[in-house]
Amino acid sequence: HQIIFDETFVIIEKHEKWSRVKLDHDKYEGWIDNKQWKLINNKSSEINKNIVIKSLFLTTKNIIYPLGSFVDFNAKQNKTNILQTAKMFLETPYLWGGRTCMGIDCSGFIQIIFRVHGINLLRDAYQQETKGKKIKFANAATNDLAFFRNDIGKVIHVGIIFKERNKINIIHASGRVRIDKLDEKGIFNQETQSYSHNLHSIKRIY
User: Fold this and answer.
1) Residue 73's Cα: distance from chain center in Å?
2) Are 22 and 28 in contact (CB under 8 A)?
3) Virtual torsion, Cα 23, 147, 195, 191, nearest 10 deg
4) Taking a C-beta distance cutoff of 8 angstroms, is the pair 11, 48 a contact?
């Protein structure tokens, strides 16, 4: 799981080189190199303190931050351009745990896209599926989320639905961020001419 600029977390346990942390915004837990964060609340000597990711470019004037980073400006909440934002990531390579244009996974892709538009989601696909209103396939609309299951019914994948020329498509991260066809069975990969994912459910998040 990637942590991007200005996300905060608390330390659960600290070791010489690595610390186990929990993010404030989605409560996700993982390990981080101790050289990559700095203390922002030193009121207590206990382990649990607020932490922030360091910028690697503090001395430069022009800084490029990954989409979804917290920076010092006020952005208006906008739920109408989710698809356009998602298409900015097309061809981004898949990276398990990734959340930037350098590499991204399916649920990280969804989390970052919706965060940019003022909607906070949990980290993993099965967690994201617990939110929103369930929608029948016939009523699916652009910006709805489609979730996909494995052979035992567990949610393992997610993507964003959009309609175009009376066809239902999905933009999702699978090998790379790509667009495929979607039907009631699942995702149809036009390159392999086969189904890659089995549909579990459709949710409307907002």
Assistant:
1) 21
2) yes
3) -50
4) yes
Distance (Å, whole) CA 35 – CA 23: 17
| pTM of the predicted model as reported, rounded to 2 decimal places | 0.72
- 189 CB-side CA count, 13 A: 14
DSSP code, position 105: -
Residue 54 CB-half CA count within 13 A: 12
Q: Residue 111 in contact with residue 121, Cβ under 8 Å?
A: yes
Q: Which of 113, 95, 122, 97 is nearest to 161 (CA)?
A: 113
The Cα 140–Cα 158 span in angstroms is 14
24-49 pLDDT, tens per residue?
Answer: 877 888 888 887 777 776 544 444 43
- Alpha-carbon Rg for the chain in angstroms: 18
Among 190, 172, 173, which Cα is nearest to 181's? Answer: 190
β-pair partners for 38: 52
